[in-house]
Design a protein that fits this description.
- This protein has 2 domains: 172 residues, no CATH class; 79 residues, Helix Hairpins (Orthogonal Bundle), CATH 1.10.287.
- The longest helix has 35 residues.
- The protein is mostly helical.
- 71% of the residues lie in helices and 0% in strands.
- It is built from 11 helices and no strands.
Length: 253
């Protein structure tokens, strides 16, 4: 019960009376998870490592605040193009099943539907996330949001505009969003996009950009966010390596 009211307080701080209601709903999800057993490691840094030590009240507030932000940003991306797509909803449900296995997807749907009908300070939420996470973790959050947008097979202009704004509020470089959006593509143009360099970059600039990306996306930098997030980081690193190999091959280096 305490988590619900802590979440309500956090929600009030983020979004006023509406935020308090939504914060309470998110807190209900966490309460239900606690009643059913310890949840999976949450998708935020340094909070909720139940296997090592009890979670303090301060950590609970921080964790609830970030979980609220994740749901708010997810709902904004889902509705950005004016359509609520099943594929995008399912992408979010799958994320919660993997990272919070004791939270019922029906309860996630309830919170999302409440958010679809509300006006929330999205920029404030993203800026708050930037204060809670390190840059690599912000990239993981943005990657999650990009995944929602492309879940229906197409990223609309409205979704792209929103993602660019969120990336800026997360204090990320526009090239970092472009890189995430190019992951998994097989063209040489997209390979340069993933590596965050132009085709006119020198070989030395290419190598430096690649080394920087490897450090930024290394799975160890997001290990505290949970096994699923770490696995996604490993996939991204493999795609970065593939992009680098493709560009090197095209240059004969």
């Amino acid at each position: 019960m305490m988590i619900k009211w802590l979440s309500g307080l956090v929600g009030w701080q983020i979004g006023g009376p509406i935020g308090a209601v939504l914060g309470y709903l998110v807190g209900s999800l966490l309460d239900n998870a606690a009643e059913g057993g310890a949840p999976g490691r949450p998708f935020y840094e340094g909070v909720g490592d139940n296997s090592q030590q009890p979670q303090s009240n301060a950590d609970s507030v921080t964790g609830n605040r970030f979980l609220f932000i994740v749901v708010v940003l997810a709902s904004a991306v889902i509705k950005a193009d004016g359509r609520i797509m099943h594929s995008e909803m399912e992408y979010v449900r799958r994320f919660f099943r993997q990272n919070f296995p004791n939270i019922a997807t029906e309860e996630v749907d309830t919170v999302l539907k409440q958010l679809f009908n509300q006006q929330i300070d999205l920029r404030g939420c993203a800026q708050e996330a930037a204060t809670l996470l390190n840059p690599s973790s912000c990239l993981s959050l943005l990657d999650f949001l990009v995944g929602i947008a492309r879940a229906d097979g197409h990223i609309s202009k409205e979704e792209l505009d929103l993602l660019r704004q969120i990336a800026a509020d997360l204090r990320l470089n526009p090239k970092e969003l472009d890189s995430l959006m190019g992951l998994g593509e097989n063209t040489l143009e997209e390979a340069y996009r993933v590596l965050e360099v132009s085709p006119t970059a020198s070989d030395d600039e290419l190598r430096k950009a690649y080394k920087k990306l490897v450090l930024k996306h290394h799975p160890d930098r997001v290990a505290s966010l949970g096994e699923n997030v770490r696995r996604r980081a490993e996939e991204k690193l493999q795609q970065i390596n593939a992009a680098y190999d493709a560009v090197c091959k095209s240059r004969g280096i």
